[in-house]
Amino acid sequence: MPRFYLTTPIYYVNGDPHLGHAYTSIAADVIARFRRLDGDEVFFLTGTDEHGQKVEKAAQAAGLAPQAFADQVSARFRRMSEVLNISHDDFIRTTEPRHLRACAELWQRAQANGAIYLGHYEGWYSVRDEAFYGADEIETLADGTRLARESRAPVEWVREPSWFFRLSAYQDKLLAFHEANPDFLAPTARRNELLSFLKSGLTDLSISRASFRWGVPVPNDPGHVMYVWFDALTNYLTATGWPDPAAPRAGFWPADLHLVGKEIARFHALYWPAFLMAADLPLPRRVFSHGWWTVEGEKMSKSAGNGLDPTELVETYGRDALRYFILREVPFGNDGDFRHEAIVTRMDRELANDLGNLAQRTLSLVARNLNGTRPAPGPRTDDDAALLAQAASLPAELRGAIDRQALAEALEQIWKLIRAANAYIDHQAPWALKKANPTRMENVLRVLLDLLHTIGVTLTPFMPDAMAKLLDQLAVPETARSLAALASPLAGGVILPAPAGIFPRFAARLDARAPAC
Ligand code: MSP
Asked: What is the pTM of this model?
C-alpha cells in the first residue's frame, strides 16, 4: 500500500486558535482524507509548538508557569481539530519526552558532522516572529521603534553567547537541491522568492538562546536552550519515532508534504533541509505554502480583536460549509478575504441549490415514482454515456489536482459534474416521463444516482459529514465509498431510505438554531 506522510505546522500556544490555523488544518485534512480514499496508508500529523520566548511571555502575562499555560492552550488546539473534523493520526506536543529526545539526537548528529559551533550572537530578534533579522531587513519608524520590514513585528537588539548552525556552508548544496527539485517548494512565486534569498548569500544561523529557559536544553551545555525553530521543525521527525529505526512509523520518513503558511516557507524550505543534510537524513519531498486570510478586508490581529474563532464559525455556518468555503473561495496558495456575505452566497447557491437540489430532486423522484428503489442500470443514450464518462474521468483529474494541492481546482472539477448533472435533469425532465416512458425515467434516475454516488464519494474529503449523509441516503455500502469502488456499478433493486435535506439554506440554518419559544 503506498504511504503518504503529511503535516500541518505545529501551532504556537501563545494565543487561541483562529481562522488562519483552521485553514492550514482543513486543507491538510482534505488531502489526508483524499489519499485515504484513494487507498494510501496515510500518516497525518498536527500538534502544538510550545517552547520559546513568545510562549514564555504569554504564560507570564497569564500568570501561569509555561508548562501549565501550554497545557491549557494546547488543549484548545486539540479541540479545534475535533470541532473541524480533522482526521489527524497523531497530535504532537513539543514538550513531550519523545520530542526532547529527538531534538537532542538531531543536534548531536549535526554537531558531530561539524555543522554546529559555539559563538556569540549580536543582532536583531523579533519575539513575535521568533526570528533573527539582518540590519537590511529592519525599518526604523519616526518614533525610533524598530520593526522587521516584512512582518511589521517589533525587534530588539540581542547580544548573548550562542551556538550557531553553519548555514553558509550549505548554500551551494541547498541551491543544487532546489534546482534539481523544481517542485520541492510551491507555488512558483514562493519558490522564486526563496531562490533569490538563497542566492543573495546565507549567514550562519544562531540556534540557541542563553537569556531565557523555556526550551529544549542544548546537549552538554545547560546554560542554553535550543532556538525554537530548531526544536519545532524536528517535530516532523519525532512523530515517526525517530531515531528508533524499529518504531512503527519509522518508514514514513521522509515526509511527502509539509503544508505551511507563506510566512514560514523559508524555515521549511531552507533551514529544515539544511538541518537534515547536516544530520545525513533524507529530505522531505515537498513543501506547499498557502496564502493568508484577512477578515472583511482587515488583517486579523489580536489588537483588532478580529481573529475569527473556528468554533464560532462552525456554530454559525456548520463545519462542512466552512470547510467548503475556505477551500473554494480562493485558489490554494493565494491570499483570501473572509466575508460573511461571500460564505452565505456560496452556501445558498452552491451547496443548497446546485448540490442539495440535485440530490433532493433525484431522491424524491426515486421515492415517489420508483417506490424508493434503486433501479438496475439500463440501456444508455449518448447523453447518458457522455455524462457517465465525465464522472468516470473525475477521480484521475482530482488526483492530479490534489497532487498539486490545487484544492479549489479540485472543487471546480466536481462542480462541473454537478452543473452537468443539473443540466441533464432539466433536459431529461424525468418527472414528465412517468406516464409516457417509465423505462426511460428509470434509466435517467439510475444515471443520476450513479452521478450522485461519484459526487458523494469525491466530495467526502471536503465535507465528510454531509457526504456521509448523502451516501447513506443513496444506500451506498461502506465498501463502495472509495475512489476505486466508483468503477463498479451499485446493485439494482436496493431500497433507499426516505430522502431528507442535506444542505439547509443559511437562513434556515439560523432558524433551526434559534431557541424554541
Ligand atoms: N509554530 C510555528 C510553526 C512551526 S512548524 C515546525 C507557527 N505557528 S503559528 O501558530 O503562528 O502559525 C501556524 C499556521 O497558521 C501557519 O501555517 C500560518 O500561515 C497559519 N496562519 C496564521 N495566521 C493566518 C492567517 N491570517 N491566514 C492564513 N493562515 C495563517 O508559525
From this structure: 0.96
